[in-house]
Amino acid sequence: MSHLIVMYILSAIIIVIAVIALAAVLPMCFMHPLPSSKVEGTDITAIKNRSNNLFFIPAGENWLVVDAGSDSRAVQSEMERLLIDAGKVLGVFLTHTDYDHVASLPLFSNATIYMSEQEKQMIDGSTYRQFIKKNKLPMVCDTDKVVYLPDNEVVELGGHRMRNIWVPGHTKGSAMYAVDEKYLFTGDAFKADKGRITVHPYTMDRRQACESISKIEKECSRYEKVFTAHYGIL
Ligand SMILES: [Zn+2]
């Protein structure tokens, strides 16, 4: 009898773990980042890295980058294939600090790293990402050199105007970047589902994310193209 009870408990634990694992992985099956190449009709180059994109914006001889991918080696080999010199990246503009957006930061050793000032709490140990997990930048990154941007701050770099737009919810300081008021890079501020904008699957604060989505829906129509991190172009 006691063996039966132990078996039931073990089965229940295994089922719970399997359901949690499935819930964690399933949303990735519906992500559809752009292939690594120049994005048609633009001068932007997308690099596909597992389930997301990082984006390269030409700045004369140099580059600006939005987000930094999840796999340094894969990013490096795609950059070599597309003849992009990591040493010529002037700035990396992080939409937020989840692992799949920061892991290849060490490739860009000459770049200044930018993020919203509200995202600082995600990497300085003061706010948990989920349960006991905290976000952090790769070891070699000097967090003292990160430039933290207030909402709506414009950075002029490499001949471009990069405007930081705070859209919290996915993480506490998630941000989008408007480039020259022409292109909008939205990171994980939302999930795009057949052109419809909904809450991203791995969101910290759904209420805050919904408020941000209302703001985003008003913003999107102002731009020629809207680039998401996991769902291609809107
Ligand atoms: Zn994220």
Salient structural properties:
234 residues, alpha/beta, Metallo-beta-lactamase, Chain A, seven-stranded mixed beta sheet, five-stranded mixed beta sheet, 5 helices, globular, binds zinc ion
Describe the structure.
By secondary structure, the chain is of the alpha/beta class. It has a single domain, classed as 4-Layer Sandwich (Metallo-beta-lactamase, Chain A), CATH 3.60.15.10. 26% of the residues lie in helices and 27% in strands. The protein has five helices and 14 strands. The protein has a seven-stranded mixed β-sheet with strand order 1-2-3-4-5-6-7, with helices on one face. Strands 8-9-10-11-14 form a five-stranded mixed β-sheet, with no helix packed on it. Strands 12-13 form a two-stranded antiparallel ribbon. The longest helix has 28 residues, at 2-29. The chain starts with a helix and ends in a 6-residue tail after the last strand. The mean pLDDT is 92.
Short summary:
With 234 residues, the protein is of the alpha/beta class. The chain contains 5 helices and 14 strands.
Produce the secondary structure layout.
Elements: H1 2-29, E1 37-38, E2 45-49, E3 52-59, E4 62-66, H2 72-81, E5 89-93, H3 99-102, E6 112-116, H4 120-123, E7 147-149, E8 154-157, E9 160-166, E10 175-179, E11 183-187, E12 191-193, E13 196-198, H5 206-220, E14 225-228
Parallel strand pairs: 4-5, 5-6, 6-7, 11-14
Antiparallel strand pairs: 1-2, 2-3, 3-4, 8-9, 9-10, 10-11, 12-13
The protein binds zinc ion.
